[in-house]
Amino acid sequence: MRRVGILLVVLTACTATPAGDTQVFPPSVPVTTAPPATTTTEEPTTTVAAPTTTTTANPYARPEWLGTRLLPLRPDEFGEVLPTPPELQNRQFETLDLLSPPVDDQFSWTIGPIPPDVLARSTWTDECPVTLDELSYITVSHWGFDQKYHTGEMIVNAAWADDVVGAFRKLHAARFPIEQMRVIRQEEVDAHPTGDFNETTSFVCRPAVGSGSWSRHAYGLAIDINPFHNPYLKGDLVLPELASFYLDRSADYPGVIVDGSVAVEAFAEFGWTWGGDWNSLKDWMHFSDNGR
Asked: In what order do the strands lie in the sheet with 237-239?
C-alpha cells in the first residue's frame, strides 16, 4: 500500500505559517553514478589530519538493521514516535560512497544538467512544477562522521546552484559532518516509515503537507541537512520518528545545526532561512528560499 500521506513531512515546505513538510526516507541504497565531466577545485581553508585507522571493528559501522524495522502507524499515518535506540544516540556513522570520493582534501564541486541515469532514479516527471532546464545537478565534497571526505550529490534549482555550492564550500571548510547526501527515489517517498533516515537532499517532486500547493522541495528551493540530527517537531510528532534524542538542542553533538552555526550563517548569506527559527513548529534540518 502506498504511504504517500505518511511521507509528506521531512523535506519541509509550504503554508503561510510554516507547516513543515518533512519527508521520511529509509537509509541510502548504493547506486553507481558518474559525476559530470567538469570538476572545479580550490585550496582548503583548513588543514585536515589523516583519518584515524584501526585494526579492530569499524567504529563508524552502520547497524545492520538500519532501515529495516517498520514502525507501527499512528492514526495520522505517521510512524509512532519511539525512544531513540542506543545505537542511534550521538549518531556518527560512516558515509556510503555512491560517487567517487575526492582525491584530496580540497573542496571540489560540479554544476551541470541532470545526467540521464540520475534523472531516471529521481522523482522528476512531466507533472512537476519545474522543467529540467530549471534544475541543476550538483556534486560537492563534504566531511563525513567517519573523519573522511566524500562526494555528495543533489538536484537543486538552477538559479541557486552557485549559492548552494558556496554554502557547502563553507561547511566543507568547517568540517561540518554530513552522513549522506544523495538524490531520493520515488519508491523511498512511498515507503513505510522506519524513522531512522538521515539523507541530506533537496529536490523531491511532491505537494506540501495538507495543501494542494507544491512543496519548496518540488522546485529545488529547499534543502534538508542531517535530518536525524536535526529533526522536525510539531506537538507530539517527531520526524524522523526515532530522533527524539536530538530534541535537546543545547547538547553539543557533531552534525547538529543550532542558531549561529556555520550552516545557518552559510545559507543566510544568500537569503535562505532556517526552519529552526520557526515559531509554530521546529524544522531544524530545513533551509529554504522563502521561509516555508
From this structure: 237-239, 232-234, 282-283
Beta bridge partners, 224, equal 201, 286
C-alpha cell at 103: 582525491
The whole domain housing 121 covers 40-48+69-288
Q: How far is CA 63 from CA 52, 66, 76, 85, 170, in A?
A: 20, 5, 29, 11, 30
Query: What is the pLDDT confidence band of residue 206, given thresholds at 50, 70 and 90?
Result: confident
Find where cell 519511539 sits. Answer: 82
Tell me the HSE value of 149 on the side-chain side, using a 13 A CA sphere: 26
Report which of 203, 270, 261 is spatially closest to residue 230, judged by C-alpha positions.
261
CB 234 within 8 A of CB 279: no
pLDDT in tens, 1-22: 334 333 444 443 333 334 455 4
Question: In this structure, what C-alpha cell is assigned to residue 8?
Answer: 509528506
Question: Which residues make Cβ contacts (< 8 Å) with residue 104, sequence separation at least 6?
Answer: none
- Do the domain assignments include residue 195? yes
Query: CB count, 10 Å around CB of 145?
Result: 20
Number of domains in the chain: 1
In a domain, 5, yes or no: no
Helix (H) or strand (E) holding 165: helix 161-173
28: three-class secondary structure by DSSP: coil
Decide if 61 contacts 94 (C-beta within 8 A): yes
CA nearest 200: which of 272, 291, 95, 123?
Answer: 95
Sequence-distant (6+) residues with CB within 8 A of 1 are none
Asked if the structure places residue 3 within a domain, the reply is no
Q: Give bridge partners of residue 283 from the DSSP assignment.
A: 232
- Would 53 be classed as within a structural domain? no
pLDDT in tens, 133-187: 999 999 999 999 999 999 999 999 999 999 999 999 999 999 999 999 999 999 9
